[in-house]
Please model this.
Amino acid sequence: MTDHTKIQVHRYDRDRMQRFAAWAGKTAPWLSGDIDTPTCYASFEEFRPEEPAGDWFYWYDEVDYGISGECECIFRSPPNFDVEHRMYLKAGDLFFIRIGTIARFEVIGDEPFVHLIVQMPRPPYTAEEGRPSFTSDNPAG
Model:
């Protein structure tokens, strides 16, 4: 049973990151999975320069906040996905990815692009089909 009387605190810790591979390895961000409940999934996410990530289809809305590093986000949006957009993102940027967007993040420089992701409610894929299963009961770092 979850204790709802406490405020959970989570800090970015690169040693806790787990690789999340999808689409036969074409998308490979690193995630910490700090909050993983049916009502909310929140995690630090890293895209590393030495591991290019492929396109990801967002079938949910997501709010993100840049923590460190920088990247170029290349994305296409519904209904026709016919125009490719490019957006520069860096630490301090707050951005909203709408449902239906197809995007990839290309790291600029040698530092990973680290950002916080928040999905409400949590999409069901996070603990399915052998993918990393995260829990929200990790002690604060």
